[in-house]
Amino acid sequence: MAHESEIEAKGDYVVRKIGEDNFIVSRDEAGAVHVLFDACRHRGVQVCRSDSGNTSHFRCPYHGWTYGTDGKLVGAPLWRDAFGGMSKEDNGLTAAARVDSFHGLIFATLDPTAPPLKEYLGGMAWYMDLLFGLDGEGMEILGAPQRFVVDANWKSGADNFSGDDYHHGHAAPFRVGDRRLPGAVPRKHDGLPHSGGTRALVVLLDGWRP
User: Fold this and answer.
1) Residues 52, 12: Cα–Cα separation, whole Å
2) Phi, psi of 67 (to 5 degrees)
3) pTM of the model
4) Which of 91, 124, 131, 93 is nearest to 107 (CA)?
């Protein structure tokens, strides 16, 4: 979903997607991280109007329902007169079933029966330790993410990021000490060749979403 360095301060938030739906990744006043469905519980209007920022609350522009950065409903106009005894506690923003982080990377799942994150990552956790665990102070995200919409099927993206070593940036993550992925043929930039028996690792995260 995001990296913890993107929401360092209390009230920081970024908006990311699970599938086609927007979710707010926020840090509340107590420092806890939340992943909240960006839809007012009243009429479903998006309550967050920016991709990132810092705020004390999210207010729906339609009828003024107001939520804290923890997703709890703070109040709404004429709450008692319009809604009687309806519970505020039961009308907060819908939250992801579980939220966890690994090397500062924030993951979320909508499945309450999903296994713990570390268990779900399985052997992929070893590669993440290798890439992201080299510095005791961890990683830091610099700048906003770049987003591209490509009219193509999944094969184009898989080929570009797992087999195309011509781009300098693709080779950089594998230049870690003297370690290389199994089967990789050494090149001057320690990247992955297009051929030579290289085994590609494809990870499909159907449950937890980074």
Assistant:
1) 8
2) -125, 145
3) 0.71
4) 124
What fold does the segment set 2-109 form as a domain? Rieske Iron-sulfur Protein (2.102.10)
Cβ-based neighbours of 154, under 8 Å, separated by 6 or more: none
Tell me the helix, strand and coil percentages in the chain, rounded to 5: 20, 20, 60
73-92 pLDDT, tens digit each: 998 888 887 788 788 888 99
Which 3 state secondary structure label does DSSP give 109? Answer: strand
Residue 141 CA to residue 158 CA, distance in Å, equals: 24
- Contact (Cβ atoms closer than 8 angstroms) between residue 194 and residue 183: no
Q: What is the pLDDT of residues 81-133, one digit of tens each?
A: 778 878 888 899 999 999 999 999 999 999 999 999 999 999 999 988 888 88
**What is the bridge-based pairing of β-strands 21-27 and 66-68?**
unpaired
Reply yes or no on whether the pLDDT at 159 is more than 50. yes
Please state the domain extents for the chain: 2-109
45/38 Cα distance (integer angstroms): 8
